[in-house]
Amino acid sequence: MSRRGLILFLSLGFIWGLPYLLIKVAVEDLTPPVIIFLRVAIAALVLIPIAWKQGYLSQLKGHWKWVFGFALIEIAGPFGALTYAEIRLSSSMTGLLIAAVPIVSAIIAWKLGLDDRLSGTRLIGLGIGILGVAALVGLDVSGGDLISVGALVITIVGYAIGPIIVARKLSTVPALGAIAMAMLINSVIYAPFAAATWPTQSVPAITWTAVLVLGLVCTAFAFILFFSLVAEVGAARTTVITYINPAVAVVLGVIVLSEPITLGLIIGFPLILIGSFLATRKAPAFEGEPMG
Question: Could you tell me the residue ranges of all domains in the chain?
Fold first, then answer.
């Protein structure tokens, strides 16, 4: 990997590990619809002009149905569920559970016939990863938090299906154009819900800062880095970043928010990452990177 590729890789690995911390900070004072609206609106304001200038938006003609589907499945549902879940769950646990996306991606690809290479190694990886999730949830999640874990299932499945839509239905259009338009679509979707739940009391500056960084850095700037990284090192090597994001989320949660290092975290963390690595060791028929 070139020096530029390494810098892009490490930068994106850190940036996409940040959202869990920022969302946890923001949900203390803002509702999920407000957080999501601001996140996608800020990203749209940055990405739409770039996509327009490059001529990417005009190339979406004839693909609007799938762009809208991608916007709902990859962003609207997952962002909403993820933000809701962090009202109760720690940022470190949330980030680690989201690390199960490659495992779910492998299962979905196999079930849909997109990847029939379910070798013994990958089966072992699936088993280890599922065991890690079970350990994390079983040891650390109380009964009252199960609804939040259930919400994360929506996020995980959405993040797993989104790349399939891109690979199967949007492979001939510029990805940046599709993502920019998806952000704009979600801005429209979440605008009325954000307006209805807009804060009536003073909101701390730290909260607004968290949302600004979430939209500007972790969404808009991150996607620009992502496409630069893919161009530099290729899609296959870029997906390795999946194993860095949760580690960043866990470390930040423990250091910044003083979240506890629990038994479930100690056991589940390595199992999920090892399982994800083994389950995706042989590159599947599609490749994608889950957002934070």
Answer: 3-279
- What one-character-per-residue DSSP string does the chain give? --HHHHHHHHHHHHHTTSHHHHHHHHTTTS-HHHHHHHHHHHHHHHHHHHHHHTTTGGGGTT-HHHHHHHIIIIIIHHHHHHHHHTTTS-HHHHHHHHTTHHHHHHHHHHHTTS-----HHHHHHHHHHHHHHHHHHHHH--GGGHHHHHHHHHHHHHHHHHHHHHHHHSTTS-HHHHHHHHHHHHHHHHHHHHHHT---S---HHHHHHHHHHHIIIIIIHHHHHHHHHHHH-HHHHGGGGGTHHHHHHHHHHHHS-----HHHHHHHHHHHHHHHHHTSS--S-------
CA distance 213 to 217: 5
Full-model pTM: 0.84
Sequence-separated (6 or more) residues with CB below 8 Å from residue 48: 57, 180, 181, 183, 184
Q: Pick from 194, 215, 170, 193: which is nearest to 66 by CA?
A: 170
Is 96 in contact with 268 (CB distance < 8 Å)? yes
Closest CA to 54 of 164, 218, 179: 179
At 45 the pLDDT is 96
Cα–Cα distance between 150 and 195 in angstroms, integer?
26
| Distance set, CA 189 to CA 71, 75, 85, 151, 193 (Å) | 10, 11, 20, 19, 8
| pLDDT band, residue 286 (cuts 50/70/90) | very low
Q: What is the per-residue pLDDT for 220?
A: 92
| Rounded distance between C-alpha atoms, residue 19 and residue 125, angstroms | 27
Q: The tokens of 177 are what?
A: 């154009």
Angular region, 113: left φ>0, alpha ψ -120 to 50, beta rest:
left
The more confident residue out of 82 and 95 is: 82
